[in-house]
Task: structure prediction
Amino acid sequence: MDESTRKRRDLWIRKILVVGLFIGLSILFTITFYINGRLGIDSDGSFHFSRVEEIYRNLKEGSFFTFIATHTFHNSGVGSFLFYPSVFIYPWATLRFIFDPLRAFYVWYGLVMFLTMAIAYYVMFKFSQRRIRAIIFAIFYAISAYHLYLGLKNYVIGEFIAYTFVPLVMYGFYEVVFGDAKKWPLLSMGVALLLYSHLLSTVMAVAIMAVIFIISLICGRIPDKARWSALAKSVGLALLLSAWMIYPFITDYLKSDLGTPLPGFSFQYTMQEFWAASLENSATNRGIGIALLIAALFGWYFVKSDRRERIIYALGLTFIVLSTSLFPYSVLQRVESLSFLQVIQFPYRFSVYSSFFLAIVLSLMVTRLFDNKKKYQRIVTLLGVVSVASLLYFNSVTLMIDRISDPDPNVMLRETDDRFATVPQGAVLDHANYKLLFDYLVLYGETDYYPKRSFANNYITTNPAAQSIILHHVKVGEKVIEKTPVVAPNEITYQVALKKKATVDLPIIVYPGTKVYVNGKNVSHETSKRGTVMLKLNQGTYKITTRYEMSKIYYSMLFIALLSWGGLAIVGVRKCYTH
Result:
């Protein structure tokens, strides 16, 4: 065996060992929950489980695309899929064909943890050219207490998925602006994947990159033509990859007066509360965890001799400040011209970036343990670090495990006669009571993307219009009739018998893409005062089907995006093979 062949073999062995390590850790992080088979539902959980249930039922009925909620969200036809990305919950829905609903989630969670570590490893290895550092960064970034809070405590699934791609976005931006501008496709892919995950996370990432870029310009770092070109190309490719996701916002969201979660700067931690939460190292609060807190406290000693590492450390501390009330959000709220900043809703969302930058610092600190050591000593040290990380992980999720282990019968989700009951905070689900989840209103987000006139913002009992939609109230003239709809993927059907000419108002949300068919014939319709389908009919018996139909432009854009991804994959494989 010649030297080059031996080196290639050794390289592949190292790669396989790294992948094996991440697979093993993903199984370890998931197995306790999987075996238990129960889940404590909280916060955004009912919203996302309802979305996955809708996709699963549509797939089961042979329809791949889901645009509106017909089986879930009380058959309202709300566009939770038009305006909230669902790309990465399709695998979760697909797992439903193999596993029960709760174990399907845990398997999906394990896959996301693996993907998070794999992408973080790739980014750090390219950044530092040190495999050990890349492994350490990947593990500690993935097990950040804030990441686990998103995924296992509050089920903030969009942000949980977006967290996976933040390293790719930041690394792509770094290369375009400060490093090898030829790597500009990484920025495009990162932004597109972020957009496929969570819109607000994309907005925050773009804003953060813009601020860093402007600061670099102020500091005299003016990009040359090659970098400006790379930046322009990355924007262009990102648009090609994500135009199909943006299209419904232009056609349906901007043309409709829809209700969305209220902006603001809510749930602000004081700095003292933030430190206490991080020291507690629990995924039940919004801290970053004790390991990253150590990086914040002692990182300066390790980064002081390297300008690039110092900037990363400073960014980590900056985002800690931005996550707390130490930043003057109360002042910003009073400045009308800056009201657009309130779109972030919760300042603790910046913990994604403090976790990212401080995990980089922590990886540098821990890597020092491997310096000047023999091979077997490095292996033992790595096993020790992985063991400590695993202990920190289980320390973070202990309260979640306790909640689902031999739960009190009173906390198990039970049947309800209250038509407006929301899912109780902390209710425990198992295979037997899972379907009861959809008898309740979604805790947060039942009326998100309703027309503003019916938008209740989690206060259903104070909004008669929202109540009437949820109760399936069909209005025939001045008469109100409660009817049960017949549903199919992206369509809802009501049977109506009229003794005389009347205006019929169906409890189905109207969007620009909404089409109405009466006895199989496409007819024009109006929008009622509650923002639902309304039409005038003569005496007779009618089968009224409301369907959401997406424009052919959308499918063309999706096809272009798939071609672009295919091209990127081919180029990537060729480069890998050549290398």
In short: The first strand starts at residue 39 and ends at 40. The radius of gyration is 26 Å.
